[in-house]
Amino acid sequence: MAQQSPPSPSGYPILKNAVHFARDPFAFVEDAVAECGDIYRMQLPGIDDVFVLAHPDHFNRVLVTDVGSFGKTEDYRRAFGNGLLSVEGQQWRRQREMLQPLFYRDRIRGYTNQMVACTNRRFETWTDGESRDMETEMRDLTLEILYATLFGRRLAPGDDQELREAADGLNEWFAPSSWMLPPWVPTPARRRFKRSTKRLRREVRALLENDNTESSPNTGDGVEDPSPYNHRDPSDPAVPDLLTQLQRTREAEDTTQLTTEEIEDQLVTMVFAGHETTAAALGFTWYLLATHPDIRDRFHEELDTVLDGNPPSAADLDDLEVTERIITESLRLFPPVHTIPRRTKTDVELGGYRIPAGRELHLSIIHVHRDEEFYDEPLACRPDRWTEYFEEDLPDFAYAPFGGGRRTCIGREFALLEAKVVLATIGQQYRFDWEQTRELDLSPRVTTRTKDGIPLKIRRR
Ligand code: HEM
Fold first, then answer.
1. Cα of 274 to ligand 1 centre, how many Å?
2. CA 387 → CA 1, 25, 53, 285, 398, distances in Å?
3. What pLDDT digit, counting tens, does each position of 254-280 carry?
4. Which of 164, 194, 268, 421 supports an S-S bond with 115, CB 3.0-4.6 Å?
5. Any domain includes 6
6. Count: domains in the chain
7. How many whole angstroms from 388 Cα to the centroid of ligand 1?
8. For residue 445, is it within any domain?
């Protein structure tokens, strides 16, 4: 086995790479790859070195061909207990087997009408000519959609601020300032995270205890209900919500049974993994459309032709080819999950270097997505690059917004359907303009965020 450790980018004597990384984590990755190549070792004060991988071949090795040598990091378990994102081995296999059918494409498409209804409710609050931060708007909307489809509950625009803040706070665990410090240091971000999980767990427990799915019909709009947890969404769902489906697994008498605690962990995990990610995809897509009027015109034209003024149905969505390519390109340029973390279970040799057991490594998705080895003019937004031939020729893992291998995103179909429905529903009635003189400034958590939001001028079409 190779004995050499991967090179480390130059840094300051005591703070090492921390200053450059904290100031601009994405620029740090670019500079570090330019200096050290596609595997490097980030040195941070107070914690073990972190290894960063920036080539699709390394991703393939970690996620597929040598998957047994790499495990999940402790962070996810600390944050989300025994949810699907964190568990490993037999427990993961059992949970995935149980949850997978709930995310099959055909089943997910049954949520289309609910997604349209939530989107309509949100833009009813907009006025022509005003500016809104689309990062926040999309986060609110995807939480409302997740709430409707996961819990069968309506989260009204403007309501439940505390709950929205709690869902938002889940990302704080992964703030770069906390990420660089040992887990026992109580940073403000970590304290916020703890408050948020507590609040969400309380909510989920109450929903589980009060769920009367089997016994009571929809309460409908305007019907008084003594419990705040019994407000089922009145839009008639073609598919029962996830909570209802998970409830049934408590009664299963085989390996697919989930305990109450596991269900609770699943629901908090889904709120975390399922709303902010899709919100980022949508926010960045609106930004790209607003800054590329030629692409925006084609997008609106397609909606007008295919939908002809009607709300999008599941069947229409397959015909929205331009929209689909725009989403694909947006997920390339701004992958909502910019890095995938893992921990080595044994000593491994990677790219001619040795990485010891028990070390954290990061697969830099955003770097590979913007690498000119795979994409001409990688920083240009060119949805038309996504031809069938281009995709066929692309090496495995040169495009990996949803990860890959057996731990690939279970919510992929859900997210892609939701992105299309929201874009189509809003894009039929509104267009957005970017009137800022500045560039978009990115600021990563576990998801890709901006420093100052995505303020867009709303125009009724
Ligand atoms: C554009 C939106 C989304 C993106 C970019 C995204 C990305 C990802 C990525 C990269 C992973 C792999 C993480 C790893 O290997 O450590 C993942 C896993 C996961 N995602 Fe997503 N995701 C999105 C939407 C969703 C949605 C809507 C849900 C649920 C409703 C969801 C639930 C999950 C779960 C539970 C896992 C863990 C799967 C497992 O380990 O078996 N995601 N996601």
1. 7
2. 41, 32, 28, 19, 15
3. 666 778 888 888 888 888 888 899 999
4. 421
5. no
6. 1
7. 25
8. yes
Structure tokens at 339: 């890095």
Distance CA 350, CA 346 (A): 12
Does any domain span residue 8?
no
Q: Is the pLDDT of residue 56 over 70?
A: yes
Ligand 1 centre and the CA of 404: distance in Å?
10
Give the CATH number, domain containing residue 42: 1.10.630.10
420-443: per-residue pLDDT in tens? Answer: 999 999 999 999 999 988 888 887
**Structural domain contains residue 10:** no
- Of all protein residues, the one whose alpha carbon is nearest to atom 1 of ligand 1 is 278
Average pLDDT over residues 391-400: 97
Q: How close is the Cα of 415 to the center of ligand 1, in Å?
A: 9
Query: In this structure, which residue's CA is closest to atom 18 in ligand 1?
Result: 409
Pocket perturbation via mutation, ligand 1, pick of 409, 410, 446 by most ligand atoms within 8 A of CB: 409
Closest of 215, 243, 264, 245 to residue 152, by C-alpha? 243
Note down the domain range covering 347: 18-460
Task: Count Cβ atoms below 10 Å from residue 180 Cβ, excluding itself.
Answer: 20
Nearest atom in ligand 1 to the alpha carbon of residue 365 is 10
